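Translate structure to sequence.
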């Protein structure tokens, strides 16, 4: 168990550093977590990710949020992470302030179906209603936007949240969401006379079915 926790913490830190390197967060904004059994390893609040090492691991109990490892305080968004773990099958969560996604969150209540990869996020990406960061109210809004099996959402005037079975999967979904938001913004310049063409729900459902056979380990489709 100890080795598993140490590996998970190393992956959390590496993923958090990647969000900075890829321009999805600035400074110490955003946060990353991973679930190991009944523990949630999560980035601390206000600490640059490049300063985190093996001895800085922060872990809380999933049931009550009590800190059980580390001396650094957990991210202020801990209520949101815990709510998602309790309500879904998530094993990893990535929350960013990605610029294109944050911009889109201020314009619409749902990301238009600009690209078929929305299917990889469980359907049309919804925008969680605005609430104070770190609050139970924000956690509630995020869960509402993740309804019906969605694995990612936008957060109004705030950023993104995605989850997955692994940190790599959660991160890939974050990157995909940011890319889709960028494409939509590029296709819809301010003051444009027409809206971009988007997909229908039926077309998206067809993609979702095909994606079940995607990848090297899947049977041919």
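Result:
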């Amino acid at each position: 168990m100890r080795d598993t926790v140490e590996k998970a913490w190393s992956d959390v830190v590496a993923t958090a550093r990647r969000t900075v390197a890829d321009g999805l967060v600035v400074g110490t904004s955003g946060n990353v977590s991973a679930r190991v059994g009944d523990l949630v390893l999560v980035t601390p609040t206000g600490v640059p990710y490049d300063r985190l090492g093996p001895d800085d691991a922060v872990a809380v109990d999933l049931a009550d949020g009590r800190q059980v490892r580390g001396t650094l305080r957990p991210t202020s968004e801990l209520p949101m992470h815990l709510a998602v773990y309790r309500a879904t099958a998530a094993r990893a969560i990535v929350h960013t302030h990605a610029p294109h996604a944050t911009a889109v969150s201020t314009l619409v209540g749902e990301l238009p179906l600009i690209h078929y990869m929305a299917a990889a996020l469980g359907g049309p990406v919804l925008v969680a209603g605005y609430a104070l960061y770190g609050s139970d109210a924000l956690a509630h809004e995020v869960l509402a936007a993740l309804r019906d099996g969605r694995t990612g959402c936008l957060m109004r005037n705030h950023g993104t949240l995605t989850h997955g079975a692994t940190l790599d999967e959660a991160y890939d979904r974050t990157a995909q969401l940011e890319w889709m938001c960028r494409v939509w913004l590029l296709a819809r310049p301010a003051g444009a006379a027409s809206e971009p063409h988007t997909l229908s729900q039926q077309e998206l459902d067809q993609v979702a079915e095909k994606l079940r056979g995607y990848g090297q380990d899947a049977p041919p489709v």
